[in-house]
Here is the input.
Amino acid sequence: MKFQNPHFRAGLALTAVLALCSIVLAEFPGLAQLGPLTIAILLGATWRLFLHTPQEHHTGIAFSAKSLLRLAIILLGIRLNFALILQSGLKILLLDIVVVSCGVGAIYLLGRFCKLEGRLPLLLAVGNSICGASAIAATAPTLKAKDEEIALAIPLCTLLGTVGVLLYTLLQQSLHLSPHLYGIFSGSTLQEVAQVIAAAGAVDNSLVIGTITKLVRVILLVPVVFLLGKLIMRRHGHADTRMEKPWFILWFLAVGVAHSLLLAAGPEAANWLKTADPQILTVANFLMAMAMAGLGLQVNWQVIRQNGLKALGVCCAGWLVVISVAATMMWCLKI
Here is the structure.
């Protein structure tokens, strides 16, 4: 068994140490907005640039980057609460469907127009349109995206969302949107769940509707992953052996359904989940950080240097499309 291989354990241990360092660093002022996932990728990529990692250790590193990544995404299904999502109404669902559809399509086309290669345009599209790093991490295995593509897409989406939190809170002081409107706008346009909580939480009575709007976008990750897989397989034909079926995303959905049923089962189950959820999320976030460190340890710096500025431009332009579509839909639906 590979777990008995000392080289495998050494590679796995390296990703664990880098993940732990990223979580500690994320507590420092100035780094907190980046989050542990982005920091873990940067630590791994920096280690690869300046320090030597024996080739024998790469089996453990690859295990973190792939297998632990899938496990972390499955555990993140506990974020879902279908009862809250059903209460949100058809308008929120329609708003998010249009935002995600237009965002994914527009950013992908922008990426191709700017001659971004490989799966990078799709990773940027799902990251900015759905739920940032989690969406990129969930989509990448299905598309068999390269490590350097993932390592570029995740920090860019995180950086853009962090800037968005600051801009939203500043603009709200001038625009004075109602808490309801501001929450929906934040939830339908910001990349990460944590970013929505940060932005909407700064305005009284915006947090609940903002979180619900964001969770609907997270749910849409499931059909988007399957649809992208089908479209790319059809485009390249069955000879494209890089593709794989995203069965793990169904487990993510199953965990969300089970979590929602337990929440509705009664106060005892809800109280148990109130204690268990933070612990499960801690494990999931640590495994995700290990996966991101593993990705960073395998990146090709030359590819990142070649595509970095173009990818940033596509992210910014694509995010403006997402914002414009969300604002237009909110006006059309009279939300």
The mean pLDDT is 86. The chain has one domain: 2-333. Residues 2-333 form one domain.
